[in-house]
Amino acid sequence: MAAEQLRSLWAQFKLLSQQIPTVVQHIEVLLFALKTDTNDDKEYSSSVRQHFTDAAILASMPSVGLVILTNLLAETGSAIRDRGYTDSRCLTGVAPAT
After folding, report:
1. Which helix (H) or strand (E) segment is 83 a member of?
2. From CA 52, how far away is CA 18, in angstroms rounded?
3. Structure confidence at residue 12 (pLDDT)
4. Which among 11, 24, 31, 47 is placed 20 to 30 Å from 40, CA to CA?
């Protein structure tokens, strides 16, 4: 019984180990798009375009890497969207305003 569970867990671990680099690459591509605002498509509102700059500002904070940036964007999404600067300061330590 325990040996079967270990084999099952090992198979899941190997699958996850193969998938993690692909997921990280996709996250990096999405974050790059958020930070650089290279999309000239007119369907994006000015509010959405503002988020691109906010992502760049958050990414420029010391010690902010891939994991921390994705967490900051996820946790502060409503504060950034609503331009809640006090909430943004509390959650990140800076007010991402341009």
Report:
1. none
2. 30
3. 95
4. 24
| CA separation for the pair 50, 86 (Å, rounded) | 17
Grouped pLDDT means (10 residues each) for the chain, 98 residues:
92 95 90 68 51 72 85 79 73 62
Of the candidates 57, 51, 52, the residue with the CA atom closest to the CA atom of residue 81? 51
Start-to-end CA span in the chain (Å)? 59
**Stated length of the chain:** 98
Q: 44 with 60: CB under 8 angstroms?
A: no
Confirm whether pTM is higher than 0.70.
no
- CA 88/CA 79 separation, integer angstroms: 6
Concatenating the DSSP letter of every residue in 23-72 gives HHHHHHHHHHHHHH-----TTS-HHHHHHHHHHHHHHTSTT--HHHHHHH
